[in-house]
Amino acid sequence: MTNERFEIILTTDRTMMSDHHGKEFIGFMTTGPPIGMPEFLWMWIAAPKMKTDRLGRPWQAPYAMRKLEALLQDHGYNAAIIDPDHLHKHLDHARILMLSHHDYFALCPPSSEWWLVTKQEPVNARSFRRLMEKPEIRRAKKNGLKIIVGGPAGWQWLYRVNLWEKWGVDTVVDGEGERIVLDLVEKVYSGEPLPRYVFVGPNDVPMIEEIPRIKHASVNGLIEIMRGCPRHCKFCSVTLRPLRYIPLDMIEDEILVNVKEGVKGGILHSEDVLLYGARGLRLNPDALIKLHKLARKHLKTIAWAHASLAAIKNAEEEYGLISKLREIICEDGVQDYWGVEVGVETGSVKLAKKIMPAKAAPYPAEKWPDVVEDAFAIMHENNLIPAATLILGLPEEKPDDVLRTAELLDRLKPYRSLIVPMFFVPMGALKDKDWFTTFKVSDEHIEVMRRCLWHSVKWGEEIMNRFYLRGPSKFPVKLMLKLFLRYVRWKVRSYEEKMGWKPLIAEAPVIRS
Amino acid sequence: MEGFQLTTTVESVLGQSFSEVWIVGELGEDMVEALKRIVRNRMFGGVKRLKLIFYLSNPEDLNYLNLLRPVLLENVSMSIVVEERPVKSLLDDARLIKDEVNVIIGKMVSAELVKAIELSRDRLKVVEIHD
Questions:
Q1: Could you tell me the CATH number of the domain that includes residue A306?
Q2: What letter does residue A315 receive in the DSSP assignment?
Q3: DSSP category for residue A358
Q4: A83 and A59 in contact (C-beta within 8 Å)?
């Protein structure tokens, strides 16, 4: 019989506990404030409520939380992920509340950027605050509930100590959670005081055999295929951790967990999917083909979380691998495109050499702009649709570096993609550097942001018309998104006219076949 | 806890050996640089795990974390644990010291610190804040 009283509750706010209509990319709307519509409508588009069972256990939940849920259950703890709307059913008899988030306070890019540009707090931070101020959490806290927070945005609590104190958070964990979480739970169960803060260093991350297999479905079927990254870009925290490849049998088990629970599509998650099974930075086509055939065997649709542009170029030019993987991914005709996040970061060779010298490997860092354009061309030709990011305000950035980025954006016009500029956030080896703040936004930055915006509006409309949200059930969301893009177009054009700027929209991209 | 099957064995973090630094009394801005220096020295000295223990007169007040933030951000390679303890536990803790521990003396230091240093059999080493 199912135990209906959980002692350890794992949860997060609605912006994370949602399948975003089955489209992970729509989830990015939660990083912005509601624009041109009321917040409830914005939330309905960006983060619709998750289906739950009678106890409030969600059908799908964030993958990292599924890992910890499995770990705790494997060790005999009565733990479950609970949807934020159902916490009142459990908190009165729970001992520990665990929270995870990608961006608790909207300090990560692109949230911080939308906040800066619109002067309005993004919905992810609003939604998390509403969660923490729920009466059931406040009441349980007064009755001795322990609150442990972590996840990729755990570091943000160091910048919000007042809320750490106000909301009674007992412990903040920054880093991979598998090894530390059992220590913390054991302390609570034995009545020992909890540490206030834990940073999990590279020596304390779990080995493959310590990583549990999820027991229930993850959001949009996301499955981890590796951890860590060997490229050592200085702005990235993932690269500080050792590289671990998840074995195929474990990947298959987790895919089957999702499929069995009705999640037919999957996202292969890695910082660089094409490095799966690689020897250093040398690609392993055999491992990649096996991985994709395995995914194809069980999943209806496949997407990639992240890939590096250098690996995309190298994969296609040396092995014809993007074309081969396209054949596998699109073989049954159910999908004719797939998505991925990529990092352009900068168009400046000088900055690329300083902050991400191995990002272009196996090509020299001097060739970075060419690597980017070649990779974009390969993706365009193979219907691999990238959501690309740029970083503005990197340490030591000069106006000329930003102009080089603007020039690169012009070269990328013909290629189907969304490009989002992000302000530098001190993470990874650069985490002790200064934040990029309002007064440093220069004319060159504004120019890059405009170019990104018009590029993304133009291609966003094309992607929406040709690829995205097909079928009658998706029509209302698609309609809202189209209206939103029109609103953005109108709003930005009006602003440009007011400022006397030459309209960039006139420079329509050349569409390559 | 009954009837479960353990499928994943996981190593403990807190059960490992940690290099310790004690901060006794309230953390002041002038102490931040000294703490940064200690963190850097430990990190470059190959220390894998560091515990910062704050002996505070009011352990409910988390303001010290605002000052500690730049110290924590110095680190990329060690596991760091931050703990708070009431000043009154200082003497008991000093008796149990096995290895040498650096101590930074904060504002409003309790008279118990001198006693604690004696009890530690000179294993508590006071760090000068200014070079």
A1: 3.80.30.20
A2: H
A3: T
A4: no
| Separation of alpha carbons B49 and A287, rounded Å | 36
Count of C-beta atoms within a 10 Å radius of residue B114: 10
In angstroms, the CA A162 to CA B65 distance is: 10
Question: What are A396-440's pLDDT values in tens digits?
Answer: 899 999 999 999 999 999 999 999 998 887 655 555 555 545 447
Residue A120 sits in which domain range?
8-204
Out of A204, A233, A253, a domain closes at A204
CB of A204 less than 8 A from some CB of B: yes
B19-126 topology per CATH: Rossmann fold (3.40.50)
In a domain, residue A187? The reply is: yes
Cβ-contact A18, A47 below 8 angstroms: yes
Between the alpha carbon of residue A17 and those of residues A51, A149, A182, A259, the distances in Å are: 10, 16, 23, 19
Q: What is the ipTM score, two decimals? A: 0.91
Contact A203 B4 (CB under 8 A): no
A230 and A170: one domain? no
Closest CA to A121 of A133, A112, A108: A112
Q: Contact, A262 vs A298, CB < 8 A?
A: no
Q: Any chain B CB within 8 A of the CB of A462?
A: no
Question: Which residues of chain B does A212 touch, with a Cβ-Cβ cutoff of 8 Å?
Answer: 7-8
A456-493: per-residue pLDDT in tens? 998 988 888 888 777 777 788 888 888 888 888 888 88
Distance CA B104, CA A429 (A): 27
